[in-house]
Amino acid sequence: MSERIQIAHDGNGKVILAINGKVTVLPIDVAERVARGLVRKAREAEELVQANRIIMDNALMQRAGANIGLSDHPKIKEESIKEALYNRDLRRYLPKGSGMGDIKTRGVVGAPSLFKRPANVG
Fold it and tell me: Which residues neighbour 44 within 8 Å (Cβ) at sequence distance 6 or greater?
């Protein structure tokens, strides 16, 4: 991809976005919402592109007894359970007694979430 992207501001509360010569002028609050949305969708797209790697890493963590996961995507969690239970190499190098517990009832835990709370004023 060779898109030419330029981002600037006009000094008066507007953000200027130019992609391949097409210019869009956005108010600050809209630019911030667009930026957050782009980051969120880029991470979702990356998660699907890297699904096989995430599944194996997640299965390894579950097999080792870690109580956190790397994804909240239902299909990735489902495949991670299968790999943790039935992957020959994982079973060989991390036998069931190595911290895995009962993964069938415990399941694969999703990715942790962090939330920003507004500061208490007053």
Answer: none
